[in-house]
Design a protein that fits this description.
With about 80 residues, the chain is mainly alpha-helical. Helices cover about 45% and strands about 0% of the residues.
Length: about 80
C-alpha cells in the first residue's frame, strides 16, 4: 500500500544518508523502524504520582537522597515533609 508522509528536511537527509550507507532504501528503513515501534509493549496507562515540590532555604532537605531514585520517590511521597 502506498501512503505519503511529511518529514522534516533534516530527518529525510539523515535517512537518505543512512540508507545509502547500509545499501538499502528509505522505505526499508521506515518499515523496520515502524515495525520496531509497533513491537514495543504499550505504555503503562497508570498515572505516576504527582510530585510535590518541597523546598528548604538554601540547601536540600537533610534526609533527601538524590543519588537513589527509589529513596527519593519514597521521600517525596511521604506525607511527613
Amino acid at each position: 500500500m502506498k501512503t505519503t508522509i511529511e518529514l522534516p528536511d533534516d530527518l529525510l537527509i539523515e535517512a537518505k544518508k543512512r540508507a545509502a550507507e547500509r545499501r538499502t532504501t528509505i522505505r526499508a528503513l521506515v518499515e523496520r523502524g515502524l515495525r520496531r515501534e509497533l513491537e514495543e509493549p504499550a505504555p503503562r496507562t497508570t498515572r505516576r504520582p504527582r510530585i510535590r515540590w518541597v523546598t528548604v532555604k538554601g540547601k536540600l532537605a537533610p534526609d533527601l537522597d538524590l543519588a537513589d531514585r527509589e529513596k527519593m520517590m519514597d521521600w517525596l511521597l511521604d506525607d511527613r515533609h
